[in-house]
Here is the input.
Amino acid sequence: ELKVEQNPLFLSMQEGKNYTIYCNYSTTSDRLYWYRQDPGKSLESLFVLLSNGAVKQEGRLMASLDTKARLSTLHITAAVHDLSATYFCADDRGSTLGRLYFGRGTQLTVWP
Amino acid sequence: SAVISQKPSRDICQRGTSLTIQCQVDSQVTMMFWYRQQPGQSLTLIATANQGSEATYESGFVIDKFPISRPNLTFSTLTVSNMSPEDSSIYLCSVLGQGTYNEQFFGPGTRLTVL
Here is the structure.
């Protein structure tokens, strides 16, 4: 069965701390996508990682992709409350037809 | 990125009825998709809405339950037929971006409650 697995599913962290969310996928895709969802809102595209070794950074978030290990990470540096949201990774299973298959999401809560 | 709107934003429906959800995009797009997000869960792809031909459904989803129309490059509808409480979900449409590979942009979603 093709899977996209995220861990942890729930993450509660203090402001200023660092942490990493992991995304394992089971296909041979070279591409991995990260999205953010605020409560009651739709999804916002954060990062698109297109090849092995890809690293992208936006503010306090940095995403990387290791296609050999079929692992992507989303690293949070010096967390702030505004980062509280649910983060999803998604895999396209190597297809260019646009379909995405999502992990269960990591619900991040950042507290003072 | 495209601006995507959905109607209705939310609805409460009775068991056995059907609801049609509309998705409108402000520019022409080649690919449109429909997803379901059950309470507290991730997104599950229902189907790809193809312009001018039948939708392509994912495993576990059938046309009789989720008929989809795509009359042009800016509009699609998803109907949830013969609803049961298990259909209570958020339904989101998305479009493929013009740039990076399979990056998609999502509409605001339709929150459906079936009693």
Notes: Chain A has a mean pLDDT of 92. Residues 3 and 20 of chain A are 20 Å apart (CA to CA).
